[in-house]
Amino acid sequence: MANENSTLQTQDVEKQEVEVAEGTERTRPGRAYVPRADIYETEEALVLLADMPGVDQNTLDITLEKNVLSIRGLVETQNPDNYNLAYAEYEVGDYERNFTLSDGIDTDNISASLKNGVLQINLPKAGPAKARKINVSAA
Amino acid sequence: MFRRPFHLYRSQNPWREIDRMQREMGRLFDEFAYTPRSRMAPSFPAINVWTNEDGAVVTAELPGVNPEDIDISVVGETLKLTGSRRPEELEEGAKYHRRERGFGNFTRTFQLPFTVEADNVEAVFDKGVLHISLPRAEAEKPRKIAVKAA
Lengths: 139, 150
What we know:
Chain A is mainly β. Chain A has one helix spanning 10-13; strands at 16-17, 32-34, 37-41, 45-51, 60-65, 68-73, 84-88, 94-100, 111-115, 118-124.
């Protein structure tokens, strides 16, 4: 485990832009970023955490198609009224990221929550696959 | 960052391969072109500053930070932002597969172009984004001076 008193570095948190496939363009104006994610495994589940500041329940879209879990968060830019941007170190944009799940996930019971701009997705493990005995019949 | 290494590209046509490498290099250099911006922001969190004649609004993205762990202090023209992002508390036996989110303490100090009315500073933390509004001290606000005809 890393030291709890360590200092946060920019490279640990800096936003990384989504690479758009060649020849395609985004349909929404602005940039899209890859949210930074942690994935850890407990006895019952895989837990995915993703930093998505500015995203709420209404603008977050999680889909599971086949084995691909897609996270998409739209961020409405909230510029303060009557103010001019004087100095900028970060840009506001949407978030997009896909994860491929392994077969051992109970896809019917995936749950997600948002807190302080962090998305948490619980991916419960499927019960142990029952070993099937295959009878070999004598010819 | 999550690009496949070169040797995984196996194409039959060597010219296509060279073409692809050239594009890959171009992309690498494009990435270098972005570094000055990140050098401008050597520490966490990155901030944006909005101003008008009545004051300023400072915003910062602090996902996963508890509002209680954010400390804002204003003295004169100086704004100090400190806090910490705590590591996730895992249950016993849990192990990481992937770890990209950083944690730890942070401190940033900013010099504003005016004296702040410290009593009226307001901070709102919503969806992981911090908004601090810093009104300018009344005595310092720009004043319109009427010109009298002689």
